[in-house]
Amino acid sequence: MDKKLFGDAFRLPLFILILILAAVMTEEVLRLPLPFPPALIPLVIGGGCVCYDTFLTVWREKEFTTGILVVLALIGTVFTGEYMEGAEVSFMMLLGEGLETYAMRRAQSAADHALACAGAKSSDAEFFFQQSGDLQRLTDRFARYFLPLILAICLPVFFVTRDIRRVMAIFVIACPCSLVLSGPSAVLSCVENAARNGVFSGKENDSAAYTQALLAKTRTVILENILLFAFLLNLAGITLSALGLLPMVLGAVLHNISTICVLCNSARLVRWKKKEP
Fold this sequence. Notes:
Elements: H1 3-30, H2 40-61, H3 67-80, H4 83-118, H5 122-136, H6 138-143, H7 146-161, H8 164-174, H9 177-196, H10 207-242, H11 248-267
Helix pairs in contact: 1-2, 1-4, 2-3, 2-4, 3-4, 3-8, 4-9, 4-11, 5-9, 5-10, 7-8, 8-10, 8-11, 9-10, 9-11, 10-11
């Protein structure tokens, strides 16, 4: 295990978890008379990090991203006085980001190492990455409609139920980390597979045929990620939240589960082999 990478990915969520446990101990066990709710500390620090990352992304991309949904949910916990719930959601979101960072950097490192060892030819690499880049854009076609769709769901839910907590739960589940990762995680696994099997080095006699089969399999995996995990799994959570059956914290857990499913499904590509006719 790369300890530095692990520390970089999970240092912050672990720190927030420690603060949450300390807040629980202070409020529920020791019952210390503090002038403020102890859960405010992990909420301010964890939620502040989530908000900062979101606003920085909005500033760089010059457009609203779906991360704004989580920011609105965290703001809602402050106005409703659910500080502990907001802190727990912040922890879950930061943990999800840590999982993404750790998995993506490990895959990127492995792919870079495999490419260096294979001594990739520039023409082969250029063709392969052009094709895989086109596959990665599959997620962009879905992502552009995601924010309007979620807002279209939340507005009638709020006007019918007048329950802001349901809306906040939808916001948390709807943050589309699994959708955003559907393409890149599969493409990185595809690259590692190609490098391991000599696609770039010319060792394969049927390199072109293997490349086409691998890219076709990658397309299938990306569509599985989008439809099964990023869409159907989260849609189930959104439906339960709209009906008031899924609290916000459990929604954050489901959000992480869908992300883990995407990463695990993409990782299958690393060891994929073309079936012999």
